[in-house]
Design a protein that fits this description.
InterPro entries: YjdM, YjdM_C, YjdM_N
Shape: elongated
Domain Protein YjdM N-terminal: 3-32
Strand content: 25-35%
Organism: Holtiella tumoricola
Number of helices: 1
Strand order of the largest sheet: 1-2-3
Largest sheet: 3 strands, antiparallel
Protein name: Zinc ribbon domain-containing protein YjdM
Family: Belongs to the YjdM family.
Number of strands: 11
Order of helices and strands: EEEHEEEEEEEE
Length: 115
């Protein structure tokens, strides 16, 4: 018996085939087997060098960043520990973190590199 992949949207294990589509009965998400790999790739968040980022990683800022609403700047080389990834970011800021001296902030993955 072949095993079907879990739903990429809700991770349900109760998926079934209907012709060329895979369907999740819990969230009603439909996808193709070829599209499942593309969707999984789209969910990955990568740093400026193309390394895959995960929750809890430590990253370094690769350029000076102006802090909106302040005259201070986050300097190049600043270490950010314990990042959290935001997969449904609408404004491009897909990393939620806390930076010493600045507090909670969101960053774009293209301005950091994984250590």
């Amino acid at each position: 018996m072949s095993t079907l992949p879990n739903c990429p949207k809700c991770n349900s294990e109760y998926t079934y085939e209907d012709g060329s589509l895979l369907i999740c009965p819990e969230c009603a998400h439909e996808w193709t087997a070829a599209g499942a790999a593309a969707e999984a790739e789209a969910l990955l968040i990568k740093d400026a060098n193309g390394n895959v980022l995960n929750d809890g990683d430590t990253v370094t800022v690769i350029r000076d960043l102006k802090v909106k609403g302040s005259s201070s700047v986050i300097k190049i080389g600043t270490k950010v520990k314990g990042i959290r990834l935001i997969h449904e970011a609408t404004d491009g800021h897909d990393i939620d973190c806390k930076i010493d001296g600045f507090g909670a902030m969101k960053l774009k993955s293209e301005v950091v590199k994984k250590i």
